[in-house]
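Hello,

Our lab assistant flagged a job as stuck in the queue for most of the afternoon. It eventually completed. Since we weren't sure the result was trustworthy after the delay, we are filing this so someone can double-check. Below is the sequence as submitted and the structure that was eventually returned. Let us know if re-running is recommended.
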Amino acid sequence: MNRRQSLRQLSFLASPFAVSSCAELGNLGRLALQNSYLVGQQSLLSRLLPNFPFSRQYGGIGQLSLSQPVLAMVPEQNKIRLGLTTSAGLSQGLGQGTGIDFLKNLGGRATSGRCQLACGIRFEPKDNGIYLKDPVLEEFQLDGLASSYSDSARSLVNLVGPQILDRYPVHTLQSGFATRALQAMTVRKEGLLLDFGA
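-- returned structure --
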């Protein structure tokens, strides 16, 4: 095999790698020129799902569990709504210890329902993560729990919400955007629009 044939074979073998490298460079170039991208609702939800169910034991009171997250976009408020199945189990002796009649009936039993939180969004430059923030409890319902006695349980949900949401990002910036300044985050019906300006 002469030198010319060897070079021809090498160029033939190298061509797929060259095409692949060019394609990757092309993708990076497109990202660099792109000023915004949309994170779909399903993508946001997929980042939350592994963190549920979430349970917290409160000494002497009982256990609160949050599971089955569902997201809804609320563009008119620039918020993301988070719905959760809520379960509570109250300690057996809680009614006797507090003197509250309804707790005597619920003590040692479990009850379930739903809660709904309206959340803002924040960007954390340290890890390029987008997080839900400042959750506000919009709806809360537990079967068998009279509304007049729900304040304590609502308070627990309000405490637990930030503890969960502050820990887990719903999105991390794509690598091509990680070094660029995020200008705005806008909730759309189909997801979260991230804008990096011109």
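-- support follow-up --
The delay was a queue issue, not a problem with the job. The result is valid. Helices lie at 3-33, 41-48, 94-98, 101-106, 151-165. Strands lie at 36-40, 54-58, 62-74, 79-90, 110-124, 129-142, 171-172, 184-188, 191-195.
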